[in-house]
## 1
Amino acid sequence: MTMYKRGICCFLAVLLLAGLLAGCGGKKTAQKPDRDDRPSNSQEREKPDRDESDREDSDWLESEWESQAETTRPLEDPEELVDDALLVTDIYWDEIVNYEYDDLYCYHIPQINISSPDVEILNGEIYDLCYGILEESVYSYGDEPYVIGMAYVWGRLENLLTLNIQVTYNWGSCDYHLFYVDLKERTVLDKEAFLERLGVAEAEYQRLLSSNLERKFLELYGQALEYNREFEGFAEHYNSQQERTLSQENLDNARPYIDRNGDLCCVVKIFSMAGADSYFHLINLSGGTDPQEQWCNGNHEPIQPEEPAGDMGQMPETYAGFIADGGYEPYLDGSHLCGDVTQYAIVDVNQDGILELFLDSGDGSGFFMTYIFTMDRSGQNVIYLGSIYSYGGLAYSQRDRCITYCYPRPTVMEGGRDFYLLDDGEFVRAYGLYFTNYTEYRLVTYKPDGSVAKDESLTEEQWNEWMEADLPLEWKEIG
């Protein structure tokens, strides 16, 4: 064979190989960056040693990642769409350890494994969007990033797929990015086309959204109105925020999606009574339980947290039996400092799906002794967390996921409240709000060891926003 013919054969072989690779769904836009190409702070960060089992899990995950191009292929045959296992998978993941607070922040970027030019472009856009957020708000800030989580949930109803990517910020709020795909046509849809193919008329969608949005607003702030109606300006502020929440502009900006159970849900703003002006919330429009925020479960598999065991005020059977049998009595203060236990409250303090039990006693002086219990994951065993002596009783900040109370009794000269997080079975002081002469206000942030991390001045308006986030516990009489 001549040199010329050999050159032609080699050229044709290269073209054939390129065609085969393109047919296997290779991507140019959504490639996992090499770890050596990460930003410098990612290269310098050292991860803590893990035990052997964790190391094996990590090695397996890395192996799966590196072979993803082979194991996760675009779905060509419509019949394959019946198996949803590989419909949406990670195209990229990472984690950052905050050593000061012993926190692990996980980040996941998804890809939709459908063979289609439209979906191929969409996957590139999703990757560019999400990795851009990581570059801007994570990799530029070492182990104290602005974004502390990126996770996703997707749902499918017949031939419609929605993908909901949640970005969680370190101040406690979330943002959401929604995408819609018609699996049969293999096309990307906008919100209007999604609702049309779902078979939901615009008028019905608006009705469902408005009624459930009103329900959610009342769940969040209805009780606050009852307790604060007498305060000047509170009712007016409540009405204003409710009106903004239910405004046509806010309804038009809401984004519907299908959750993992096949229910029609929505991401929508609710204008708040405290904290930021508004927060995004997830609302079920189909009559089911409202979805929870998305978090990584530690195995780098995006999951939805367990459903709460019940709402505030509902008594799980384990606690009912515990109270009826007097199981709490060995834990009571021997002097019964504030009298006998007469009432209880139920609340999921850290919103992890396990309800805490509060047993309260008071002697009429304004001081209370409160005994706190929780359950193990089985829901069968009650665990004693400790007792709190406070003036005025306890309150709960759903926004900050904190129990808050004051001690000692405030005076006209000085006072305040401390905020406690429930962390690994212990209440840890996270914040303190303090005043002097009701003219100077301070917010103190504490480290886990109790030392001060930050001490800053607040305006009176900022002080009021923090205080208005506290809701008294819903106490019920025992017996």
## 2
Amino acid sequence: MIASSETILWMGYIPMIVLATMAFLKKLRNDRLIVVILALSLCYALFGLFIKTKDANSYAPFALATSFIYVSTYAILRYIYKIIYKREPTYNRSSWYDYEEKRRQNLMDVLVHLLPLLLSVLFPLFF
């Protein structure tokens, strides 16, 4: 299959943006859901290995792995967070206090949500 690099980049980044939005809205708190999304995103990333682009030196096929990188790093950091703090991580973009859970955010709360996002956006640029 031959596709343009821009199309493949959009195909890679849109699912990652949807997953990041789900995490920010606290929808990725179910372990079974994370395992299912992890398996689907792995299949999506493996699909990127078979895509040919018009530009031979393009890094666009690696963009399909962004959702897998996001979900896997988010799941690992969430697991570590739950072991340390015995609760789910939270993230409120506008303040350091989460009114739904009635608690202050700590640095690990922010890292659990932002580090996977940064890693998944930067990954295709290095390969």
